[in-house]
Amino acid sequence: xxxxxxxxxxxxxxxxxxxxxxxxxxxxxxxxxxxxxxxxxxxxxxxxxxxxxxxxxxxxxxxxxxxxxxxxxxxxxxxxxxxxxxxxxxxxxxxxxxxxxxxxxxxxxxxxxxxxxxxxxxxxxxxxxxxxxxxxxxxxxxxxxxxxxxxxxxxxxxxxxxxxxxxxxxxxxxxxxxxxxxxxxxxxxxxxxxxxxxxxxxxxxxxxxxxxxxxxxxxxxxxxxxxxxxxxxxxxxxxxx
Length: 241
Description:
The protein is an all-beta fold. Helix content is 0%, strand content 51%.
């Protein structure tokens, strides 16, 4: 398990014992997003101050460090097949990196240079949430423009579909183990569950009284957890209403 903080530390933990494996000191830049690679070897982190970094999990060795930019990064995910890293920005753009195109700088003593291979102009405002499908074939994005969009990895920049219904920012996206179902959290105080093939909302969960920042399904997709600014975590049965 990996945690990110505005104290500029990335920490890696054993979730069964609570033991800390490693602590990675970053320069001050609000590293508030971090994910592990599917094989558990790498930690990827990005920040609101326009930097994107890859570290070795156990040693903290820097594998890749991007040049600083003026953009902010608000969302991050690693595809389950390990091939892609997606980063969502305040420009409404997803930067999609191919992890198989590492190129050594100089005579092999330099660090690999991870080149992004496509920029996807997804939304008109910041992308607050994004996630890959479990088979890595689709990318789901949610934005401050209140919309959710679904993209097919093999056919960029074509969008599979757009989903509308939230009254405020979309803050997070969660994909169920059932590939037909996903959920979106929003600052409109709700979580919506959607059916992909039917292009419809099948359930709206409206029990929170403040912004909902996160949502996630359990291992078999029968339960959904939501976390809100109202200081509550809610568990739901994920079924059509």
